[in-house]
Amino acid sequence: MVAQAIRNIISPKSVIAQYQKIDFSNKGTIPIRHLNIGFDGKEIDIEFYVNNQFATLFFATLSVFLTYGEDLVIETARHHREFIQDPILKQRVTSLIGQEAIHSKLHNEFNDAIKELEYPVDFYRFLGENFFKYVFLKFPQPLKLSLMAGIEHFTAVLAEYMMKHEKNFYYTDDAKSRALWMWHMLEESEHKDIAYDVYQVLNGNYPLRATGFLMAFITILGLIPTATLFVPVLRKPQEMLTKKFWKDARRGVNLIFSPKDGVFGSTIGQIFDYLRPNFHPNDHDTTEYLEYYKNKLLNEGGAIAPYFVKEFTPPVRAVS
Ligand SMILES: [Fe+2]
Ligand SMILES: [Fe+2]
After folding, report:
1. Ion ligand 1, residues whose Cβ is below 5 A away
2. Residue 13 — pLDDT band, cuts 50, 70, 90?
């Protein structure tokens, strides 16, 4: 019986058969939104996140590295889209690709702008580019698919946390950084189940899914925080001699990692929920938050509205 249970967990066939029955037409359409923010380094607030420089530098590091993660998601999704038989899921993958392409573009513009704040953009871009080029992008496609689903789980958890802590984006007057992150979080939550569904439809192997999760975990909660630790050293080492710096750093670490209310510290249970064999991203229902934020941010007077250009929903095409 135990052996059978284990077989059920790791057997791709059982997962694929279960997914064959899913009616993707019940899922809403996802638009690809174009934004024009126009960052200016002089306007970017170095204490954007809850009046804290260290936490803001963490998000800046995330911004640099996530563009490579997004490029991996785009490449992997494009490759696997060809094998999807369900026309709605296929359309959703096109939306995922489109949203991630614009995230990557705008974060790159933001990253160019933070050079003005003496953030070591070029050095971290060099590290990110080579790490992805020589490690992640060399993986076989099934592992890349699993990694893509793992990365998307982390962005979904982050998005849910941010939607539940809206006020954290309003400590600052920097409306452009706020628009970037709130728009990005909204869309990460909007498309949070697509990569996972593609993984389950095309592969479904549990150990491989756990491996992709582990790699995303090491990157997002290991490499990115480590890289952040070196930013003050590379940026303004003289600041590290002040008491103010260490006070800010301690508070920043808490803002990200405190088990009580930190971005990743307080969501660690939800992060590991991904390892539950019958996990699905929609087990964590964010529909109400999404509706609230879409109305609040995109309508006139909303944080995203001044930068919104147009949106486009990919058509559903019959699969030949
Ligand atoms: Fe994204
Ligand atoms: Fe995403």
Report:
1. 100, 103
2. low
Q: Which residues contact 128 (CB under 8 A, 6 or more apart)?
A: 64, 65, 67, 68
Cα(272)–Cα(170) distance, rounded to whole angstroms?
29
> 247 CA to middle of ligand 2, Å?
33
pTM over 0.90: yes
Q: At what angle do helices 53-81 and 194-202 cross, to 10 degrees?
A: 40
Cα(89) to centroid(ligand 2), Å = 15
Return the ligand number nearest the Cα of 96. Answer: 2
pLDDT one-digit tens code per residue, 296-306: 999 989 999 99
Using one digit for the tens of pLDDT, what is the confidence trace for 63-72? 999 999 999 9
84-88: long-range contacts (C-beta < 8 A, 24 or more apart)?
84/198, 84/201, 84/202, 84/319, 85/319, 86/24, 86/201, 86/319, 87/316, 87/317, 87/318, 87/319, 88/24, 88/25, 88/27, 88/316
Query: In this predicted structure, what is the pLDDT of residue 240?
Result: 86
Domain borders along the chain are 55-309
